[in-house]
């Protein structure tokens, strides 16, 4: 998957010494149907696939849907935002999810704790930070292996514990299957030669419901899903590439002036992409220019009264007409821009410090009260 990620089917980052090779499952539709029949679903069943409404997740979900259909499983796709999809996962209210997740640190222990560890499977435990809890996957033996590996001082024994944990997770048909490990592209261009550093970021994953909820039938069903997905993981590579290819060329500025010019061009680019912001900026700039050059722009004295010219209509002598005292309205508007800018500046200078004081006072008071209480 150039420019997006690398195939990874283990609950552990690539290149880690403790990581075992990919299981290497293959797709076998007749065997999948046989397993479904043994589990009590000879005609298949219906399920739902929740996923983000953006590539590559929606593309993976569509391919998963087609693969499940070959085994007789009718899956409907439910798309949503990140809050909707991950919210359902955190609430353990889902059947299959195509999404992404990441461990905090690139270390075997944290990888296994994130994706396979579940210290308490009860709903009341409320442990959404553990992906295993979200998927209702609970295995005390696996938890024990991960805990032992976390405190083991001997490097060889610790490596063996990590291997045992991965093997047990695969034997237990873990509900979370890794598809790929995402990467951040540092630079990509036709004229760049040599090797490029690819920094691991996060994995695209999908999860199904747990053994605790469905029993043996669900375990067999998940086996079918895992086999189907792993066989078609290579098919998803093209989707990753087409949807997420990034072309970024690193051009270091030659001088501070060059950097300033590039920053200005970047700001201008963002402004041009937002017409409303650009329009507001132009209005503000026009106001500043008018205020600065008011003596040269105004056609009359803004305070001079001429009752003989009161309430005249717009014309060549008075572009916007006159008011009830015969004062030129256009000139008064031009000079009025100065008053407007003065008020805006005054409000900003006064309200800013006052708001900062009011906002920080409760926090400072609470911190002082906490320190005095602890003392």
Task: Note the topology.
Elements: E1 5-7, H1 29-38, E2 46-52, H2 57-70, E3 74-80, H3 82-90, E4 96-101, H4 108-115, H5 131-134, H6 140-151, H7 155-171, E5 176-185, E6 198-208, H8 211-214, H9 216-231, H10 233-244, H11 256-272, H12 275-292, H13 294-297, H14 329-374
Parallel strand pairs: 2-3, 2-4
Antiparallel strand pairs: 1-5, 4-6, 5-6
Describe this structure in words.
This protein has 375 residues and is α/β, with parallel strands linked by helices. It has 14 helices and 6 strands. The chain has a 6-stranded mixed β-sheet. Strand 2, helix 2 and strand 3 form a beta-alpha-beta unit. The longest helix has 46 residues.
Short key terms for the protein model shown above:
375 residues, alpha/beta
Summarize, please.
The chain has 14 helices and six strands.
The main β sheet shows up as: 6 strands, mixed
Strand content: 5-15%
Q: Give, in order, the helices and strands.
A: EHEHEHEHHHHEEHHHHHHH
Task: Tell me, briefly, the overall form.
Answer: elongated
Instruction: Flag low-confidence runs.
Output: 195-252
Radius of gyration: 33 Å
Helix content: 40-55%
Mean model confidence by pLDDT: 76
Question: What is the total tally of β strands?
Answer: 6
**Total helical segments:** 14
Q: What is the structural class?
A: alpha/beta
N- and C-termini, Cα separation: 58 Å
Task: Give the strand line-up of the largest sheet.
Answer: 1-5-6-4-2-3
């Amino acid at each position: 998957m150039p420019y997006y990620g690398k195939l990874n089917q283990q609950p552990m980052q690539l290149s880690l010494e403790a990581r075992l090779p990919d299981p290497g499952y293959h797709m076998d539709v007749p065997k999948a149907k046989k397993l479904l029949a043994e589990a009590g679903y000879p005609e298949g069943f219906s399920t739902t696939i929740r996923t983000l409404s953006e590539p590559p997740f929606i593309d993976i979900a569509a391919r998963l849907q087609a693969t499940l259909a070959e085994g007789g499983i009718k899956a409907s796709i439910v798309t949503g935002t990140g809050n909707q999809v991950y919210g359902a996962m955190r609430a353990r209210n889902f059947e299959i999810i195509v999404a992404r997740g990441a461990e905090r640190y690139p270390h075997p222990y944290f990888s296994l704790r994130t994706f396979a560890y579940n210290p308490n499977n009860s709903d009341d435990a409320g442990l959404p930070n553990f992906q295993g809890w979200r998927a209702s996957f609970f295995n005390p033996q696996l938890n024990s292996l991960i805990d032992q590996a976390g405190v083991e001082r001997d490097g060889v024994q610790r490596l063996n514990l990590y291997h045992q944990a991965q093997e047990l997770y695969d034997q237990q048909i873990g509900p979370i299957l890794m598809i790929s490990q995402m990467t951040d592209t540092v630079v990509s261009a036709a004229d760049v030669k040599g090797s490029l550093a690819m920094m691991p970021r996060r994995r695209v994953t999908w999860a199904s419901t747990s053994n605790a909820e469905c029993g043996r039938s669900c375990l067999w069903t998940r086996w079918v899903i895992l086999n189907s997905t792993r066989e078609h993981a290579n098919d998803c590579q093209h989707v990753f590439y087409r949807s997420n290819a990034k072309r970024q060329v690193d051009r270091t500025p030659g001088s501070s002036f060059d950097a300033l010019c590039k920053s200005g061009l970047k700001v201008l680019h963002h402004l041009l992409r937002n017409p409303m912001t650009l329009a507001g900026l132009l209005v503000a700039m026009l106001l500043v220019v008018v205020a600065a050059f008011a003596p040269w722009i105004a056609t009359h004295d803004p305070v001079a009264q001429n009752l003989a010219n009161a309430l005249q209509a717009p014309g060549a002598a008075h572009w916007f007409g006159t008011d009830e005292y015969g004062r030129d309205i256009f000139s008064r508007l031009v000079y009025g821009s100065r008053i407007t800018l003065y008020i805006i500046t005054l409000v900003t200078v006064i309200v800013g410090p006052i708001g900062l004081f009011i906002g920080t006072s409760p926090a400072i008071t609470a911190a002082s009260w906490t320190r005095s209480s602890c003392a």
